[in-house]
Amino acid sequence: MSKLAIKGGERVKTTPFPSFPIWDKEDEEHLLVALHSGRWSIGHEDSKNPNNKKFIEQLEQRMSDLQKAEYAIAMSNCTAALDVAVKSIDIQPGDEVIVTPYSFIASATCILQAGAVPVFADINEKTWNIDPDCIRKSITSKAKAIVVVHFGGQSADMDEIRAIANEHGLRIIEDCAHAFGASWRNAPVGTIGDVGCFSFQQSKNVTCGEGGVLVTNDVEIFKKAYSYHMSGRKYGGQWYQHEVLGWNYKITEFQAALACSQMNKAEKLDSIRSKNALRIIEALDKIDGLDFVKTDERVTERVYHLLTFTYDPKCFGDISKKRFLRALYAEGIPLLDGYKYPIYKNGLFINDKKHDYSIYEERCPVVEKKCEQGVWIPQTLLLGSEKDISELIDAFYKVIENIDELRR
Ligand SMILES: *Cc1c(COP(=O)(O)O)cnc(C)c1O
Questions:
Q1: Eight-class DSSP state of 244
Q2: Which residue out of 63, 75, 79 has the highest number of ligand 1 atoms within 8 Å of its CB and is therefore the one to mutate?
Q3: Closest CA relative to residue 189, chosen from 265, 301, 273
Q4: pLDDT value for 46
Q5: Is ligand 1 within 6 A of the CB of residue 199?
Q6: Which among 45, 124, 135, 129 is positioned nearest to 98, based on CA atoms?
Q7: CA nearest neighbour of 21 among 222, 224, 204
């Protein structure tokens, strides 16, 4: 008689994890207020309308306060904000920008959009963030900036990265798509470097469907970012005065309204995720062959967008990651197998005729390994109840104790 659900046994978990996104009356009210205000976008102000709550400006103000940023610009999404950020620090065609290969594609396409060249630096085995030593080895005379991703919700080593940037005159862009609420030695992410970008896309910890915010303390970057996201309009200029080649990356009042109400719930949800993540690590990290991400002790606020670990098949009788995850799925535990290959192995890079990105396979062994062995527990699962998490842990033990069944 088989025990594992994938072999016809009973599944451990019969109820689903909480669904996401989560909304309440406040979100409904915000959306209706935005609707009835008649001001659905920037540039259509009606100051006489008492229903105009200016959610776009509220969102920008709140992000300024939270991230200790002098300036914040809400945009249509974080990809847009990243495109704008790279342009706003004056990256030119042919410049090199150093970036992690273990991220969503937008962390690197923002570099291409400016005609610059991404240079991929490997990540740290323990934190899964870009490794400062690898950044050092990647610097050439053409290097102009670093795109840092605070992967999974943990700040990268901003002490070392700042030191390297100062030494070599590089700018720093922080991709904070996973890291709303995170901090490094009590400094909120996003303003430790020169410019930071946040995402409110539906998979992120705080979401309004699609949305992004750029933050900076540099007035010159702010003015340029304003122009680039506003069809090239001059900051402080006239409505139809266009001085640079820009995009229309403006956010809508609806997105901002929802972002504001969702933000009110962020702290509560983050503390549930953290509590659950710590419990899972405590229960499972000790298992040979499961190696959970480690938190740098200088990280003062670690949020969990993803709780990541590597699965080493050698410790499980050579049962593949795919088979292991399928068995867990059958038990009612839907985990993610992460990026299947590093950013540089996407067709976009493989088919590039001008640059040879095949050099990175050898240069980035850690990222190659994470793509092969990495598993993600997404933030939505981390919102589970105590019972949900107990069942998740039980399912791991059940599959591991009966791993031989997977061979048959
Ligand atoms: C989601 C994500 C982005 C892009 O954000 P969008 O708002 O979807 O454009 C950028 N970087 C990382 C690391 C992400 O996970």
A1: S
A2: 79
A3: 301
A4: 66
A5: yes
A6: 135
A7: 204
What pLDDT sits at residue 374?
Answer: 98
Q: Which long-range contacts (CB under 8 A, 24 or more apart) does 2-7 make?
A: 2/405, 3/398, 3/402, 3/405, 4/327, 4/330, 4/331, 4/398, 4/399, 4/402, 4/405, 4/406, 5/327, 5/330, 5/331, 5/332, 6/326, 6/327, 6/329, 6/330, 6/331, 6/406, 7/405, 7/408
Atom of ligand 1 nearest to the CA of 175: 11
User: Which residue owns the Cα nearest ligand 1 atom 1?
Assistant: 177
Q: How far is the CA of 199 from the centre of ligand 1 (A)?
A: 6
Q: Is the CB of 52 under 6 A from ligand 1?
A: no
pLDDT of residue 44: 80
Distance 175 CA to ligand 1 centre (A): 8
pLDDT digits (tens, 9 = 90+) for 167-219: 999 999 999 999 999 999 999 999 999 999 999 999 999 999 999 999 999 99
Confidence at residue 212, expressed as pLDDT on a 0 to 100 scale: 98
108 with 343: CB under 8 angstroms?
yes
- Reply yes or no on whether the pLDDT at 2 is more than 90: no
Structure tokens at 279: 């419990």
Cα of 402 vs centre of ligand 1, distance in Å, is 38
Measured CA distances, 381 to 122, 230, 265, 388 (Å): 28, 37, 17, 8
Rounded distance, CA 337 to CA 313, Å? 14
Distance 158 CA to ligand 1 centre (A): 20
Q: Is the CB of 249 under 6 A from ligand 1?
A: no
Residue 21: is the preceding peptide bond cis (ω within 30°)? Answer: yes
